[in-house]
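Notes, Module 5: Reading structure tokens.

Key idea: the token line is not a picture. It is a compressed description, and you learn to read it the same way you learned to read a sequence, by spotting repeated patterns. We will look at two proteins. The first is printed below with its tokens.
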Amino acid sequence: MKTVFVTVGTTSFDELIESITSSEATQVLKARGYEHLVLQVGRGSVFPAADSCPHIRLEAFRFKNSIAEDISQADLVISHAGAGSCLEALGAGKSLLVVVNDKLMDNHQLELARQLHIDSHLLYCTCSTLTETLRTMDLSVLQPFPPGQPKKFADFMDKALGIK
């Protein structure tokens, strides 16, 4: 069963939850072969009922100790543009569509999403363009995100702190 996992992290992003559960968006997901929609809604006030999307099987939760299993089981991850959420999905090798919250002031999330898009690691949109992006997206253009190199970072920090 093809699954979409949506995460808003620890924030509230009701507009994303409303957009992805709209009749138009769920019809597009269904037409693309997705049958299961799992939502991590965070602190938001929108908490869709399991029977609120007639086109697709829906599950929702607020928080878990880890969303790694949800990401692992997903065929597509849709995320807010938080760095942690993006890097966790990309690190798991998942196709990622980032929805930027354009209502935020001083939106550093847009900068992150734009750069990762330029590097062909993800697609991004806003809530107002989500349904059209789902309809037209080509996930085959995405390139794997290279794994981190913690040893190089540790060596840099040791040198910077005068430990080595």
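Here is the second protein, with the sequence above and the tokens below, as before.
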Amino acid sequence: MAFRLFEEKHHASIYQRYRFVPPNTVKELILQYLDEKKGQPHVLAVDLGCGTGQNSRRLAPHFQEVVGIDVSESQIEEARAVPGFSNVIYRVGTAEDLPFPDNSVDLLTAASAAHWFNQEGFLKEACRTLKPKGCIALFGYTDQDLELHYGSCGDRLICIYEQTIKSLSPYVSKRVALANSKLLDLFDAIPFPDKKRIDCIPVEEDISVSNVLGFLETFSYYQAYKKAEPEAASALLRDTQAKLLEAMGVSSPETKMKIRLVYFCVLACKTQ
């Protein structure tokens, strides 16, 4: 079953602009694992639920070919509009029906997307398409572990963020809850005995107040809220921005703070 999110072009544009690019720390963990298990050459990486291609482009220097796959045509259009990556191609499709021959893929990866996959269908395709010693790498971050910092008011900023997330909680799907469990059920279901999980990979970035609001707008449960109550959803973002600016003692929404994300990563190797 494919969950269709960010189908409209506006939603895909928001995703392209405000979603975080996967950090080098996670990329290096994945490449190191692939090197240890399979070794060179790295021919084909398939980025599932690729969205607008942030993770696909990160992988491009390390593989002969990268294929990004997403169910949303709008997301794929946004990804294709980014120039300069001649070895990356994008296709509309799902993680449960991959257009690759048996034993042909070096790496199957998904950045903040695997919780939307049908578990049984995805794992069946992973077993079929991965080369011997090919690897799965699934990663993301959890909403609960996000922190905001600016001067001495970090605790207040985190409280404001948590209050906003609480307001959205009626619209959080079971699939998002799976992501926030760090894909525990999916990890247990992976049929490869050679697998591991890394649950705490902290990453800090600078982010403006306006981009914090844009980041919130990319959440699937914010989009669900906006669809149900558009005026209330817009008001929630305005109120959140006002509270953040007040807490920081600044007036410009372009003022930057620190955001701390805690990533997790699930790694598995097809042993045969």
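Summary for the second protein:
- Residues 1-5 have pLDDT under 50 and may be disordered.
- Residues 230-248 form the longest helix (19 residues).
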